[in-house]
Design goal:
By secondary structure, this protein is an all-alpha fold. Helix content is 81%, strand content 0%. It has 9 helices and no strands. The relative contact order is 0.16. The model has no long low-confidence stretch (mean pLDDT 89).
Length: 238
């Protein structure tokens, strides 16, 4: 039982590592990425503004989707579509395709994938195990990310650290997304639709949002996360 639990967390870590490499490509190939787009740094940054806007709009309905549809189907669809976006950008490295790709990534990784992933991790353990479940998932994601990025960067350097090298890295990333989708399809045991993490959990209602918005501690946590995430993002440019 425990083996299946941690094997599932490893699979989910592999999925999230595969799907987010394209989203945060600037962390690894910034100069080659900007050169491929053929634009200024400010315009390149606009792609992430588009992505952030798309995620902001899609996270809430994405959570509703995850509660009403198969987690397995959501993960597989998101991984396949993100793989297609890797291949699309690999063979069409220009700014307008980039705008389409990064907005589409908000839909695949934010609307379809993220809430389903969070629910899948949550259902791996009981209420008293949630910290451990997310801790192991994060550790597995880090290990898988190192493997995927390491192989993609090896291809990137072997092919010339330019447009050709970037194309090779993107193809590798797309292949890992397809591999993750195949593994989820073959291995992941989908819980019944509508399954909750505990017997006392009630269905979501829009009216439940207002007490949360009135809670000052929620806004304090939001400010802390906002500042921390901005510092984390700035490190990629440094």
């Amino acid at each position: 039982m425990n083996f299946r639990k941690y094997a599932t967390l490893l699979l989910l870590g592999f999925c999230s590592a595969s799907i987010y490499v394209l989203v945060y490509i600037r962390y690894y190939y910034y100069d080659a990425w900007v050169a491929a787009l053929g634009v200024s740094h400010a315009k390149a940054g606009l792609l992430y503004s588009v992505y952030a806007l798309g995620c902001t709009i899609s996270y809430l309905p994405g959570g509703l989707l995850a509660d009403r549809m198969s987690i397995k189907r959501n993960l597989v669809v998101a991984l396949i579509l993100t793989s297609a976006l890797n291949f699309l950008f690999a063979f069409n490295q220009n700014y307008y395709v980039g705008l389409f790709v990064w907005f589409s990534l908000a839909l695949t990784t934010g609307f379809v994938f993220w809430a389903g992933l969070v629910k899948a991790v949550r259902l791996c353990g009981g209420a008293e195990e949630q910290g451990k479940m997310y801790g192991f998932w994060g550790a597995f994601e880090g290990l898988c990310s190192a493997m995927i990025i390491g192989l993609a960067m090896w291809v990137f350097t072997r092919l010339g650290e330019g447009g050709v090298g970037l194309k090779g890295a993107l193809i590798v990333q797309g292949c890992f997304c397809l591999l993750a989708a195949l593994m989820v399809h073959l291995v992941y045991a989908d819980p019944p639709c509508g399954q909750k993490s505990g017997p006392d959990e009630k269905p979501f209602r829009l009216a439940d949002i207002m007490p949360i918005l009135k809670d000052r501690s929620v806004w304090l946590v939001a400010v802390v996360v906002f500042c921390t995430y901005n510092l984390f993002n700035s490190l990629s440019y440094i």
